[in-house]
Amino acid sequence: MADITDEGISLVEDLYRRRQPLPSMDAIYFIQPSKENVVMFLSDMSGREPLYKKAYVYFSSPIPKDLVSRIKNDTSVLPRIGALREMNLEFFAIDSQVTFRISHPISPFYGPVIVMNHDILCANKVGFDLSPGYFIFLKWQLQHGGPVVFGGLRQKIVINTSLKPASRKLLNIGFITDHERALEDLFGEAVENSRKFDACLNTMATRISTVFASLKEFPLVRYRAAKALDASSMTTSRELVPTKLAAAVWNCITMYKSTIPNFPQTETCELLILDRSVDQISPVIHEWTYDAMCHDLLELDGNKYVHEVPSKSGGQPEKKEVLLEEHDPVWLELRHAHIADASERLHEKMTNFVSKNKAAQLQQRDGSELSTRDLQKMVQSLPQYNEQMDKFSLHVEIAGKLNKIIREVGLRELGQLEQDLVFGDAGTKEVINFLRTKQDATTENKLRLMMIYASVYPEKFEGDKASKLMQLAKLSHEDMKAVKNMILLEGSDNRKKSNGTFSLKFDSQKRKHAARKDRSGEEETWQLFRFYPMIEELIEKLSKGEFPCEYHCMNDPSPTDRGAAGGTQSKSMRTIQSQAPHSMRSRRTATWARPRSSDDGYSSDSILKSASSDLKKMGQRIFVFIIGGATRSELRVCHKLTTKLRREVVLGSSSIDDAPVYITVVALLNFTITIVVIIFFFLLCLKNFIVMLQ
Q1: What's the number of CA atoms in the CB half-sphere (13 Å) around residue 29?
Q2: Cα angle at 681 between 677 and 683, to 5 degrees?
Q3: Cα dist. 584→151, 349, 594, 601 in Å?
């Protein structure tokens, strides 16, 4: 809220709460184009005594024609509307600073008041703080005054009264569509042809499309298509989610081509649509970067961290809230670093700062008398000294807490087993040995290990094997729901099992007992930094034009544009100009806290250099959208590949989930497999009956 009031906004209100009439002032509405919001707007502005003198209405996405007609048919409201426009800004920007300057002029602003939807006021509850790094930053060239009314969308608006040329800039960004229940709505029980399924899919497509509308990018839309083993196999709605979402996004994009001025008519970027089944391990494995461990091991409220600081009055320590976001340069540099590397860097930076800062040097002197010149230098250095020391102290405290938890929980040994399982260096013997010897492991950590084990060895959970593992791990039936649902969501080796269950797996190939292969040309600087999300491989293949054949293209249904099996590239793919990536390190055996002298190629320092580089020198953007939630390790990969490929890699998802949240969501899914099988056989019999009649 401080960011809004700093721009001269004196009042913030909720659209759905009773508001004081301001008939002498004009109002600016920024609302979703929903029936409820339009009704509220018409109620505000209709009758003899409207709330405001005139309304300037801006919709976050395209408004349906029936709602436009409803507004036009209200003769009392129509003369009071000063503007009615679609802004195409219906998504949350996360991970990096974004600046939008919208070229729609609004008249001179006097005595500003903002009226917001309740969702904005509660934004912190869902983990998105009111700060530039985690919301869309709208810089509006305002020329008009009055209340600004928000409705139906958690968004941040920042008013900028300076008249500057409109521009759009996006760098190393992630975005979400705010669908925290996407897995439940799209992959849960009884989703076949349900209203909830269609509503979630359509809203998600609209919000994804507004990203491209805002940036004026026309994407080449690729998606992971469902594959059936034979003609008798039936494809479920769950398997078709990426296909249906790609089609819905494509419909929105094609509409923008004819409705948005200067919108590109040919492809300018690439969009890859996946679902969470492409990589079930990333959401549950322990990620060892500073950012991921903060969200995994500390009790953060979104990006808000609460810690104790000494009281200025000398009393009890006071609690202070800080945001771990891009305005903090220490966080920006360390967030993608390994926790051991981050700890060492903090120590070096603290030592270097104290040795160079005048105030720090003078404070460390003995009791000798200070000269006037010394005092002057100390006073000049104090503001910077206090600010920097606060930041260093904060991160030293956080790193210390993380390292303490790692030691107390025995996380290193668990993390090693997790990664050995993923890379095929460990199996059943090692898992059983861990469960027997580490009885004090937390339920969550044992459950995460079991989910990784099930992803690599799904056959170990068939029949009564799952019950034996559950007893050994001392997990409840409720806990095991997450494991079982993950297997169903991801699919098993065969589409139809002998016991009559129905699998949801896209790929029919037999699973290897290694979910990842060591990447050639890369070297570990730190232990437990071996794991990488699957999207890293997919994005690199996409950039090279070596995409698997099961990834189809919505723009051109011809076989040559449905991926790059056998090295085939689409026409649009060949137009992409990306520089050759710099060489990465070859992997060696690593140690826990001993850095090597090589450049990691994707450290925060490298990202900062990339961020300051000229974007025009980079190739076309790559957008990757994951249905069902993305992870912080996947955000890290996008930063890394932006530097490596010299192309902005933008990660989008329905939400950003930490492991506990993802496990809870998966555990709550209910799969009525028996009903699906009954429907399948009924339709198969019906088909045979029709054939017989013919």
Answers
A1: 31
A2: 115
A3: 48, 26, 19, 7
Start-end of H helices in 270-371: 290-297, 329-334, 339-356, 358-363
User: What pLDDT is recorded for position 546?
Assistant: 86
Q: How do residues 346-378 score in pLDDT, each as one tens digit? A: 989 888 877 776 555 555 555 555 455 655 555
| 290-409: CATH, from 2.60.120.650, 3.30.420.380, 3.90.830.10, 1.10.357.140 | 3.90.830.10
Kindly state the tokens that stand for 160.
């900028």
Beta strands in 39-118 (DSSP E): 55-59, 81-86, 92-94, 99-106, 113-116
DSSP result, 430-450: HHHHHHHH-TTS-HHHHHHHH
| pLDDT the model gives residue 604 | 41
CB 160 within 8 Å of CB 109: no
The Cα 143–Cα 159 span in angstroms is 11
Which is nearest to 178 in space by CA: 626, 656, 624, 623?
656
| Phi, psi of 560, deg, nearest 5 | -70, -15
C-alpha 185: how far from chain center: 18
Q: What pLDDT is stored for residue 690 in this prediction?
A: 65
Nearest to 129 by CA among 399, 372, 324: 324
CATH level 3 topology of 170-279+532-657: Rossmann fold (3.40.50)
> In this structure, which topology does domain 2-167 adopt according to CATH?
Rossmann fold (3.40.50)
pLDDT for the residue numbered 251: 95
Fold agreement (2-167, 170-279+532-657): yes
Beta-strand pair 318-323/304-309: antiparallel
How far apart, in whole angstroms, are the C-alpha atoms of residue 564 and residue 561?
8
pLDDT at residue 204 in the model: 96
Please choose, from the candidates 533, 561, 550, 60, the residue with its C-alpha nearest in 3D space to the C-alpha of residue 270. 561
Which residues of the chain carry a pLDDT beneath 50?
A: 97-113, 115-146, 152-171, 229-230, 370, 492-512, 559-614, 673-678, 680-681
Q: For residue 535, which of 442, 457, 630, 603 has the smallest C-alpha distance?
A: 630
d(CA 360, CA 381): 9
- Name the amino acid, one letter, at 314: G
pLDDT in tens, 311-322: 777 778 888 999
Taking the alpha carbons at both ends of the chain, their separation in whole angstroms is 69
Q: What is the pTM of this model?
A: 0.78
Structural tokens at position 472: 């050994």
Buried b (16+ CB within 10 A) or exposed e, 659-691: bebbbebbbebebeeeebeeebeeeeeeeeeee
Domain range list for the chain: 2-167, 170-279+532-657, 290-409, 438-514+659-694
Nearest to 352 by CA among 330, 369, 331, 374: 330
What is d(CA 135, CA 131) in angstroms, rounded to the nearest whole number? Answer: 6
